[in-house]
């Protein structure tokens, strides 16, 4: 059989093909090929044409442990490419994987709690900012906070998230997604507890920073764990639903704030309510298996016994799909993923350097992705969300309870608009939603400016402007910025590119949040929202001029057609 294949290859010279397209076929090669380590010093012609990697050192030992494996060649190109796309977040495979819905819920739910707690912090801080400054309701002797002190309280978690996202990057592959999320949950619980019992401002700020560390770790680990453990045909839906959990958390924060705003020391309850959820998240993640792909990646990297990691991966996948332990389907899927990982890890083992992100196609991708997450923040998004209560209070809702309850209505509207965006983005496209949404953001900011300048006697204008802002943001910058970031970077620099995008997002978020109140005092609310509106117009021009439409394109097509 080998001689037949060799004769065919000799008479049909083939170019080197490292990343076959979906239509790639080896149908003229006999139906089964056995790929083994050859004692010959020359490479097998078929293995050369497929770019099957040569290994030395640890990888040579790894190959010796798995020297014989066979594949149906009619499925070879399609299955390997589908597995590579699946591992790196690429195009969905057309093969439908059998799974139990009951087994999918918990591996999605517990990581998604990380997003829920992030959103809860945004919503709860809105009410806590009012409660903490009230002479009657703060329950403290240090309620008279300056604008800078209040800015530190509000943005403290964002500074922690910024530092956490830096801290987690070099240790994430060592710890694995599951342990990363357990640590995130512990940081959430510790931060919430310290904040709730804080006897003074300094301890409160420490608690806010610890909570922020949990945000940074959770926002890194949650999407990775969900993407690597869920069935491929529902991966996109579940990752999009994580955005809904963030919005749901914001709504819950508003809701808790509205019921605790009239309680003495209510801000302590607002922050402390995150602790039980964080503990539930930690216990839930402890009960879940590690990501099968992470286990196989550790094996490919030579970090342990191949067979041991392989058996752990089979057991983990069986649990995640609701199948009997060690079932043949899971074993077959692990074998296919292992074959793909050995090939793809060799192809991509030399990751792009940090400087490479600022060169060639990667630079273009960073301008698009980094620009979107930057404009997402500097158009005032943190200010509108974190300070919704104070804005409404200054807009005529004199009672703190009135302001926080209107914030709950805004949170419900935000949840509704996020749902619309999640289910329509693949129908309408990314760019049209961005253009329409950013236009609405600019209009809403100009309305807020006009309210503070000319329309102070009409509080419904402020509410309408906030609703317009929230709705426009949730169909544009909210979900689509991160969708574009995940699509636009080339595979070689995707990890580092997304890391820089996360740092850009949290960094600009923290700066805008901290600077809002001092700038409001310096410029006045009408001029500050006017500045935000002008930035929104600039971001609209950015979208029109530079942001491409990626609807319907695979990651390879984006790289070849848009970034070249």
In brief, what are we looking at here?
The chain is mainly alpha-helical. It has helices at 2-11, 45-49, 58-65, 73-87, 101-133, 147-168, 172-175, 177-196, 201-229, 235-260, 266-272, 274-287, 292-300, 306-320, 328-348, 360-378, 381-386, 388-394, 400-428, 430-453, 459-474, 477-488, 494-523, 525-546, 555-562, and strands spanning 32-35, 69-72. It is a multi-pass membrane protein.
CATH architecture of the largest domain: Up-down Bundle
**Overall strand count:** 2
If you consult CATH, what is the topology of the largest domain? Answer: Growth Hormone, Chain: A
User: Please, what is the CATH homologous superfamily of the largest domain?
Assistant: MFS general substrate transporter like domains
Write the layout of secondary structure elements.
Blueprint: H1 2-11, E1 32-35, H2 45-49, H3 58-65, E2 69-72, H4 73-87, H5 101-133, H6 147-168, H7 172-175, H8 177-196, H9 201-229, H10 235-260, H11 266-272, H12 274-287, H13 292-300, H14 306-320, H15 328-348, H16 360-378, H17 381-386, H18 388-394, H19 400-428, H20 430-453, H21 459-474, H22 477-488, H23 494-523, H24 525-546, H25 555-562
Helix pairs in contact: 4-15, 5-6, 5-9, 5-10, 5-11, 5-12, 5-19, 6-9, 6-23, 8-9, 8-11, 8-12, 10-11, 10-19, 13-14, 13-15, 14-15, 16-22, 16-23, 16-24, 18-19, 19-21, 20-21, 20-24, 23-24
